[in-house]
Amino acid sequence: MTAQIIDGKAFAAEVREKVAGHVSRLKQEHGITPGLAVVLVGEDPASQVYVRNKGKQTIEVGMSSFEHKLPAETSQEELLELLDRLNADPQIHGILVQLPLPSHVDEELVINRIDPDKDVDGFHISNVGRLATGQKSMVPCTPLGCLMMLRDQRGSLSGLDAVVIGRSNIVGKPMAQLLLGDSCTVTIAHSRTRGLPEVVRRADVVVAAVGRPGFVRGEWIKPGATVIDVGINRIEAPEKGTNDDGSVKTRLVGDVDFDGAVQVAGAITPVPGGVGPMTIACLLANTVTACCRANGLDEPEGLTA
Ligand code: NAD
To answer: For a Cys staple, 254 with which of 218, 225, 271, 283, CB 3.0–4.6 Å?
Structure first.
């Protein structure tokens, strides 16, 4: 059996199309344009690329994009003051602070200064608590994207055995909460888990968020399981040759041994082109959701947890 390959790029395009439809209705029927503010401190090249892509896609779906690029030496106080202004600005429905922040800034303090209703990354302690207690919350974008793909692929997730490998606050923990919310029997595995292959072998749904190339072996997968690979790892690819400076070319791979797992799984996300594109799409979805809630309007269907 060969697994169905879940096309995250196409799925993300569908989500963005839905978002654009809601944005258009909000503008036409209510005169409201959803707005997303992204704050970047410093010049980390990867963060600059993420922020550029977020801004571009925000505009493409018809929303307003507000970018605040601050120098690396910006003080914590200045950053908090900017967040206070963004919190109070009615044109802004979503606020995202690009992580990581420079070491002189207390990341937790900054994240918790964002108005929880505008916290489109879902990292504010109130949103973490709301998600854990089953209340309406802003849900972290990457796990939300994984959940959307799982629901689309499996229909109801109720009663399925799910294993989440990784317990980070950004992916593993919220993913486990979402699966629990959809009535899966959830196991969270991590670096101290014993007998991981056996744990994974029981699972109808496997979400891998470890950060190690090809870590989850094909022979661990239960036949027919749905495998969601969150990992993004850059490895050397000598088969692609060398760069002008003589260094070996690289390629991206996930946390799952794709070639092995694709022979056994029922469905699997590739890397690249799986979970990755869903993250920004879900950021846009969260911004529309936040805008609707802020204006007392019905939430868009299919874009929240
Ligand atoms: P993290 O480093 O914060 O967490 C990794 C987790 O893996 C930890 O909880 C750890 O317990 C677990 N782990 C480490 N070694 C293990 C082992 N031997 N066995 C079992 N578990 C082990 O990473 P993160 O932020 O959760 O990200 C995980 C991966 O997902 C990374 O590759 C990251 O680049 C990727 N990621 C992708 C997206 C996206 O697609 N947009 C978003 C966030 C993260």
So the answer is: 271
Q: Among the atoms of ligand 1, which is closest to the Cα of residue 276?
A: 40
Beta-strand relationship, 64-70 and 35-41: parallel
Average pLDDT (156-161) is 98
Q: Tell me the CA–centroid distance for residue 168 and ligand 1, in Å.
A: 7
Q: Are 222 and 204 in contact (CB under 8 A)?
A: yes
pTM for the model stands at 0.98
pLDDT at 172 (0 to 100): 98
pLDDT tens digits along 208-261: 999 999 999 999 999 999 999 999 999 999 999 999 999 999 999 999 999 999
Check if 4 is active-site: no
CA of 102 to the centre of ligand 1 (A): 21
Domain co-membership, 148 together with 188: yes
Q: Ligand 1, atom 12: nearest CA belongs to which residue?
A: 166
**Does the annotation count 98 as an active-site position?**
yes
Angstrom distances, CA of residue 206 to CA of 29, 218, 251: 42, 12, 23
Where residue 73 sits, what CATH number does that domain have?
3.40.50.10860
Amino acid at site 162? A
* Helical (H) or strand (E) element with 259: helix 258-261
Domain presence at residue 127: no
| 197 and 267 inside one domain | yes
Range of the domain at 86: 30-118
How far is Cα 196 from Cα 204, in angstroms, rounded to an integer?
Answer: 15
Q: Are residues 147 and 181 in the same domain?
A: yes
Q: Please say if 177 is a catalytic residue.
A: no
Ligand 1 center to 234 CA (angstroms): 14
